[in-house]
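debug: dumping io for the single-chain case to check the tokenizer round-trip. Nothing else runs in this session.
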Amino acid sequence: MTLHLTVPSMACSACAETIAKAVRSIDAAAQVTADPKTKRCGASGGTPRSH
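debug: decoded output
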């Protein structure tokens, strides 16, 4: 599953890294992209979750 979001308050690369760390704290295998210039980020799950 891939999720794309716009994050209006993302201002710098430190903000992007904070977002990436937060996603990876939930799914360590997730692929995360975050671009402060476009204020967009994306995350693709790496680990299927059981319900």
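debug: round-trip ok. The mean pLDDT is 92.
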